[in-house]
Amino acid sequence: MKKSANTAVREKASVMQRMLSAPYTVWAMLFILVPLVFIAYYAFTDDNFNFTFDNISRFFNAISEITAADGSVTKVRTYILIFRRSVRLAVISTLICFLLGYPIAYIISRMKPKTQKTMITIIMIPMWMNFLIRTYAWMTILQDTGILNTFLGRLGIGPFHIIGTQSAVVIGMVYDYLPYMILPVYSVMAKLDVKLIEAAYDLGCNSLGVLRRVIFPLTVPGVISGITMVLIPSVSTFYISQKLGSGKFFLIGDAIEGQYIANNLHFAAAIAFIMMVVLLAAMAVLRRCADAKYKGVHT
Amino acid sequence: MKTASKIYMALAFVFLFAPIVIMLVFSFNDAKSLSVFSGFSLKWYRELFRDEQTLTSVKNTLILAFSASVISTVMGTAAAVGIDKIRSKWYRTAIDTVTNIPMVNPDIITGISLMLMFVFIGRLFGASTSLNFATMLIAHITFCLPYVILQVLPKLAQADKALPEAARDLGCSPGRAFFKVQLPEILPGILTGLIMAFTLSLDDFVISYFTAGNGFQTLPIRIYGMTKKTVTPKMYALATIIFFAVLILLMLSNLAEKDESRPKKKHRNKK
Fold it and tell me: Of the four, B58, B84, B179, B235, which is 20 to 30 A from A158 by CA?
């Protein structure tokens, strides 16, 4: 008799505890889900909130003319061009981040546990600095009369014109987001079972084989989250391109910001909506591919 | 191989710290140049402390980060306790998915989406400007919440489920059982969540940029404004101060972690 009363009390306590998540549930609906609905709503309406496809079709059909140095004029689809450029630069940056970051994560994971922790803390320090300031610092480094060219000039090399080129934009993205690649890869790498690597060596695998057949497949989940964490902010950035690209290479983020400043909220929403849909699809495909190729590894 | 990896790591650190070192050095530059060092001086620091707008923005940033992190930590911890008890599988999946959205979505989408909603609601009420401190606070709480929840949930999963029940059997009220037994066990997660929320809020530019009203300027927005024109080393002085503040905070949190691990070990021994 007493026992069942106790269970009832416990049930009640459990219901009470579940109620604790109610404020968050309401908050998440109001400020996470409803705002996303607003993006779609604005994207498909005009200034008077009547339904329209105009914003979406403007994204696909807006045309601008590019005058080349020799005076010839080519017509391009403005936002398709910008979108392609964003994706291209972001993919290049992500690839470089992976090529630079994966070895760093690997080297750190082979260090003594105490050194590992220090190294990770050191890598995190730049992340704590405001990214606007870091990006601006790169602008002064890469300038024609900046520190890099002054330094190279002393060595008798250069000067190189870097600022205002797409390379400068890529350098900025790689710099800002490299830690986002290192950290998730490292966290998977650190938990790797050393015995598996030793077994592979014992069974006659060479270092390259071990890396390709044992270590890499096991670290795919870390790589996937690394790619996600670098790709998404680089596709959507709007500051790096303005500063390091000298505003010559508009990215999709710049387009959204520009429309926001011009108070074209409906078109800004349309660009954001399209970007969101493309990103969601890309992420789904990425995960599906990784799952298919390394089945059972993904946790 | 060993030397090769050492050289590689050294180069990586040069790359990661080059801009920071350059800012540190040039904040003490006598001249305005950001590439030629002509002599040591503290004049940019003096100028920084005379810049009312920047000082106000620092104050604003701290007020916002403090309010956003405290509110999101309290709400997020309560939410985690509740979510941990959910038995319905689809409900749990739904909540987890929604919680993930602000972390996966680009900041610019989060910022734009909130801004559109605020502007729309503002229009309904006929307000000319609907963005202010409150909208910014809502935005910051929203993007901090998932991080707090994800810090607290694993701690709840690890925590001993029998302990709060034992406390209840021994006559504790539910509230008392929570505060006396459960809370101390998940406290490390809550604190990490609080610190994360605070630093995220402190550093956020993109979401603030879209949800900020004209009257309330945070430091990142102020920096954005400053970098629109040519920048004086004054901003480097500011960066240097931020750098050392971050360094001290990191060292303090490392120390706190060490203190934390000690009583935990004792607890395990007792078992």
Answer: B235
